[in-house]
Amino acid sequence: MKFAPPREPLAKLPTPLLDLARLSTVLGGPRLLIKRDDLGGFALGGNKVRKLEFFLADARNAGADVLITCGGVQSNHCRVTAAAAARAGMRCVLVLSGTKPARFSGNLLLNQLFGAELVFVETRAERGPRMEALAGEFKAKELRPYVIPLGGSTPLGAYAYVEAAREFALQCRPMGLTVSTIVHASSSGGTQAGLVVGCLAEELPTRVVGISADEKKDDLGRMVNDIAQALAEQSGLPAPRKDQIEVLDDYVGEGYGVPTAASDEAIRLFARLEGIVLDSTYTAKAAAGLIDLIRRGRFTRDDTVCFWHTGGNGGLA
């Protein structure tokens, strides 16, 4: 393999792969599994922990002393970046799109607790330029900034989910599991790109369906495809066809971070049937998508479907 980047261990791996037997029975659907990346064991877990293992190692190799990244005000990626910077003894600056609230809660509260410096901008379009401007200011002060793009969704970040797909395959094979579909929350595209490439590399007969938390289907599909193609080229792994990039945007509702009736129902079902907490921004909308697909008969009773829990703060206040 041409691409074997260094990593700095943060997560507790492998994360559990468990049955959702009660939920499956209530929904009358396929066998349901859950991959618990919310139990990654660092900074409340989540998919971004795997990615930060590679970004933190790369930042150290570059001699960085400041981590800069961006996201929405409740970004899981920003929360984990802040925690990783604290652990590494680095300064952290987060550029967040949205209005600064009067009272911090959830990931925003955690970012502050981890000691990150918060910079608020009005629009998503302002985030990238503000990060680059901040990096320039730090360099002028003879500091060494390291900029992590939105969501850590680069080939380097996505490679973490090639490794995750390998971990998943190693869990499935001894149990004789053939998983037809993975369903997960998708936002900036890196996790989905890594899973698609990783499943191809492991020769798994598994579709990867990303449920958008914010982006339009076509836009997110292009993002996933671009990252996946670049990842495959760098790593020497199989590149997916465009029809292997599956994104659904039917469950976004009024927008990023805005709960829907279906996502509220998903939170209740997972909590009351399985004792599992979802967050309203990402995983609840993905779970709402999974539940709707089951109810509409998109899977047979003979299928085995995995919900990949990508983490979140569960509305922590």
Can you offer a commentary on this structure?
The chain has helices at residues 21-27, 47-61, 76-88, 106-113, 127-140, 155-172, 190-201, 217-235, 261-274, 283-295, and strands at 17-19, 31-36, 66-72, 91-97, 117-121, 145-147, 181-186, 207-212, 246-248, 304-309. By secondary structure, the protein is of the alpha/beta class. The chain folds into 2 domains: 17-46 and 153-309, Rossmann fold (3-Layer(aba) Sandwich), CATH 3.40.50; 48-152, 3-Layer(aba) Sandwich (Rossmann fold). The strands form 2 sheets. It has a 6-stranded mixed sheet with strand order 1-2-10-7-8-9, with helices on both faces. A 4-stranded parallel sheet has the order 5-4-3-6, sandwiched between helices.
Helix content: 40-55%
The order of strands across the largest sheet is 1-2-10-7-8-9
CATH topology of the largest domain: Rossmann fold
Roughly how many Å is the radius of gyration? 19 Å
The major beta sheet can be summarized as: 6 strands, mixed
Total count of domains: 2
Overall pLDDT metric: 95
Fraction of residues in β-strands: 15-25%
Structural class: alpha/beta
Q: Under the CATH scheme, which class of the largest domain?
A: Alpha Beta
**Terminal residue distance:** 44 Å
Contiguous low-pLDDT stretches (5 residues minimum) are none
